[in-house]
Amino acid sequence: MGKLTVRALRAVLVVVLTGTVFVQALMLWALISGNDPEDGSLPLTLLRVITILGIGTAQVAMVCVWRLVTMVRRGTVFSHAAFRYVDAIIGSIVAAALVWFAVTALNAPGQRDDPGVTLIMGGVCLAILGVALIVLVLRTLLAQAVARDVEAAEMQAELDEVI
Q: In this structure, are residues 88 and 60 in contact, taking their beta carbons and an 8 Å threshold?
């Protein structure tokens, strides 16, 4: 990865992370202060809590991507330490799918006249889970690369002994 690519990705991550923290803070303030511009009904309050949690799942993924990019720059990404970040990304994507499912379930009673909206929202939930499966496949590829790297290191050590 080039320096420009890493800097651009980190700039995007900083901007998005800052924006999400700001939105979370505003939503939390609206919940705690009681100065809700809406009527403060239960579904709206519940949707705000779900949204705060959903944003948190994205933040976890962004921090893990930051750490993985750091490992790539240092040349240490093909190690067992990278798995914890990849696993956290998978977990955050699955959590995001569950959060989206909760939004879908909360929204469904209001969509009795137009059930297509609920079906589309359910499809989005499946798509989010599909992203988690893609990252799981990439984790498998990382595991194979780590195994090959360990094998290559062992072979190099044996070759050094022979020489």
A: yes
Q: Give the contacts of 124 (CB within 8 A, at least 6 positions apart).
A: 100, 104
Q: Judge whether 128 and 96 are in contact, CB under 8 Å.
A: yes
The pLDDT of 72-87, averaged and rounded, is 92
Query: How far is 24 from 93, CA to CA, in rounded Å?
Result: 18
- The pLDDT value recorded for residue 41 is 56
> Which single residue is written with the structure tokens 């990304």?
89
Contact 66/13 with Cβ under 8 angstroms? yes
| Among candidate residues 63, 42, 50, the one with its CA nearest the CA of residue 97 | 50
Confidence at residue 159, expressed as pLDDT on a 0 to 100 scale: 86
